[in-house]
Design goal:
alpha/beta; flat; 19% strand
């Protein structure tokens, strides 16, 4: 049948004369009429396939090449081995691939109703049914007509698209002309309105009290000024300043240099900073003055603008002073830390010498004086450290729920009316060690950003205070301690969310997506800094198109105090091996002597990395580890974590010079048994070891 279709459509002709002329004994050249008639006959490109799968593949290839089939001849009963109506299913799939192809279904049976064929292969106008057997001219005429119809529809479709684009282009041209005409009409009407309001606009601008504005003639006589200028130079009203010479007024104010020289010499003055004395107050001013030149090139008028920058100057000086104090605090903290180590050496050796000196001897008296002076120096270092940590001095135990309620009451008036505020207090253990002012600042910044994100579309602002659990979707990092130690403050909105391209930069200082004048880019940076200073954690949960949420994790106040153990006056220590780690060799030497005097075997290291290698080599030989917190390469906390990975039951004592750097809860979460403050005194060291030995 495939061969028959090809022969009928490609080779059969009503006139076999062409073949006879080609192979006959007497070849005859075709006439002009025959040539014209032959050119008008359709030429078909046939692709025969013997299965439904091959047919689908052929159609897909043709569509991919951009040369779709015009007619598909499909036998309803493809073969005896396939499904009874496989051709009908193939026709449905072909229609799904190419909605424009003309489909001809052929069948030698009468078991498929035409109603079902029309229902399954849509649309009916692109479907024919041909009963077998058929005559060759019928098939050729049907295919020729369908191909011509398909070609005409394609041409019509292209013509409609071309016509639509031409109409659209002409319409756009007409619309452009109409818009231009409307603009011209509007401009002509606007010119008249602008002329009517220009005087009023100028007066409003001139009278604004943002700057002190004045206008003077070429000799300096004031022609006009605003209220701000009059108040700046102690005139009761602007009218009282008219006629006064601005050059003389400038000199009487005590400004160094003359305004006349500035204006005449340069023609204009831009942002010239000066200071004037008004009674006991110094005013800092920024002057800009310009000359109005007439047609002859002579100065016709002077116009000046004076901006009072006294308040920005004060804030700048305050910021400079704050930065100096912060730098001084940082310097003091570093010096105090090093000084603590020096004191540790002095007091440590003093204690060792004192323990071996004869009571009431001269050596005993001198050593006690050295120890007393060392302790006074230690107290002084503690005061310096408190100074260097200015922020934490304002912290005290507080509950977050009342502060949240108060902040939301204040925010309600500034939040747009289309934003609903919901607060959820889901914990009764919300006590934290924090600065209330800074916590209030966190609420204002986060809620303000959330309401700004929803000011156009509206939405819901949800503030949640809850406990933290291990199964929460967002938890603080492991190195901060267990999640149960924290309370979570979440500020969520249903706005558009944050662009993923800028989400990583929201905590950068001075980065903002708000327009000029609406934001400085410091809000989230300040929130991040406050949370970090409170030993907390800040996490952004961004859902573009649905909203954003900021999770603030703050450590709860410690409800577990360091356990105190009654220590007998004379302790009999069992034999044991202690690893003592400190980056200062004199401190390790003192530690060795103190511990060896108590009966312990001591191994010292001045590098945390080397100490970890020594512990790994003989981990079971050590009974106790004492480590400094501040060390290069690996801090004491990090060293303790690595040790506990090897021996989870190892007793560890952490030594630190900063009390705010650690808390007993945090150390307990890590697995550290106890901590002592530097400089290390033998009594404190013995007490700490005793606490761990009692536990063991």
């Amino acid at each position: 049948m495939l061969t028959l279709y090809r022969d009928v459509l490609c080779f059969e002709s009503e006139e076999p004369s062409s073949l006879e002329a080609l192979f006959g004994d007497k070849p005859r050249l075709p006439s002009r009429e025959e040539i014209v008639e032959d050119e008008s006959r359709p030429v078909f490109d046939i692709e025969p396939v013997a299965s439904g799968r091959d047919g689908l593949d052929a159609v897909k290839r043709s569509l991919k090449r951009g040369a779709p089939f015009s007619v598909a001849l499909v036998d309803i009963h493809l073969s005896a081995t396939e499904a009874n109506r496989a051709g009908l299913e193939l026709a449905e799939k072909l229609r799904g691939l190419d909605p424009n192809v003309e489909i001809v279904l052929l069948s030698a049976r009468h078991d498929v109703p035409l109603k079902e064929i029309n229902r399954r292969v849509q649309p009916p106008e692109k479907l024919l049914f041909l009963q077998k057997p058929f005559r060759s001219p019928e098939l050729k005429q049907i295919v020729t007509s369908l191909a011509a119809k398909w070609d005409a529809e394609n041409r019509l479709r292209e013509l409609n698209e071309t016509l639509a684009s031409k109409v659209e282009a002409r319409t756009a041209e007409l619309n452009t002309v109409n818009r231009r005409l409307r603009r011209d009409i509007v401009k002509r009407a606007a010119v008249l309105r602008e002329l009517q309001v220009s005087e009023q606009r100028y007066r409003l601008l001139f009278e604004r009290d943002v700057t002190g504005n004045f206008a003077a003639d070429r000799d300096g006589l004031i022609l006009d000024c605003n209220v701000a200028f009059a108040e700046l130079f102690d005139f009761p009203a602007p009218g009282d300043a008219r006629g006064v010479n601005i050059f003389d007024l400038w000199e009487k104010a005590g400004v160094p240099g003359t305004l006349r020289d500035l204006v005449v010499g340069e023609g204009k003055v831009v942002n010239h900073e000066v200071s004037i004395r008004r009674g006991f107050v110094t005013r800092h001013l920024l002057l800009s003055c310009d000359s109005v030149i007439d047609a002859d090139g002579a100065v016709e008028e002077l116009r000046g603008y004076i901006f009072d920058i006294s308040e920005p100057k004060r804030l700048e000086e305050q910021l400079r002073q704050s930065q100096k104090m912060e730098a001084l605090g940082t310097l003091a903290g570093g010096i105090a830390h090093d000084f603590n180590n020096i004191l540790g050496v002095i007091l440590g050796y003093a204690e060792i010498i004192e323990s071996g000196a004869e009571p009431e001897s001269g050596l005993d008296r001198r050593i006690k004086e050295i120890s007393r002076a060392g302790r006074r120096a230690r107290d002084l270092v503690t005061q310096i450290l408190n100074f260097s940590r200015q922020g934490p001095q304002e912290r005290h135990a507080m509950t977050m729920a009342p502060l949240i309620k108060e902040a939301l009451k204040l925010l309600r008036s500034s939040v747009p009316a289309n934003v609903e505020i919901i607060s959820r207090i889901e914990t009764d253990r919300d006590s934290v060690m924090a600065d209330p002012t800074q916590m209030h600042q966190i609420m204002l910044n986060l809620c303000g950003n959330a309401s700004h994100a929803m000011q156009e579309t509206g939405g819901t602002l949800t503030v949640t205070l809850a406990d933290v659990g291990n199964d929460d979707p967002v938890v603080p990092p492991e190195d901060l301690g267990k999640p149960e130690r924290f309370v979570r403050l979440t500020v969520a909105d249903t706005g558009p969310g944050i662009d993923p391209e800028v989400a990583d930069r929201v905590f950068d200082p001075f980065f903002t997506t708000k327009p000029q004048g609406e934001g400085t880019g410091m809000g989230l940076a300040m929130v991040h800094g406050i949370v970090k200073r409170h030993d907390g954690y800040l996490e952004l949960e961004n859902r573009p198109g649905q909203g954003a949420a900021f999770h603030v994790f703050l450590p709860k106040t410690s409800e577990t105090e360091r356990p105190e153990t009654d220590i007998p006056a004379d302790l009999i220590f069992r034999q044991g091996r202690i690893l003592f780690v400190d980056d200062e060799k004199p401190l390790t030497d003192i530690g060795r002597e103190m511990l060896e005097s108590c009966g312990f075997e001591v191994v010292t290291r001045t590098s945390s990395v080397e100490a970890l290698e020594a512990f790994k080599f003989r981990a079971t030989d050590f009974d106790l580890v004492i480590t400094d917190q501040t060390m290069p390469n690996m801090t004491g906390m990090e060293f303790a974590r690595e040790v506990l990975k090897i021996r989870p039951d190892m007793p560890i004592i952490l030594c630190t010079g900063f009390s705010d750097a650690v808390s007993y809860d945090r150390l307990r979460d890590v697995g550290i048994g106890d901590f002592i403050m530097k400089p290390i005194l033998k009594h404190d060291l013995v007490a700490s070891i005793s606490r761990l030995l009692v536990k063991a």
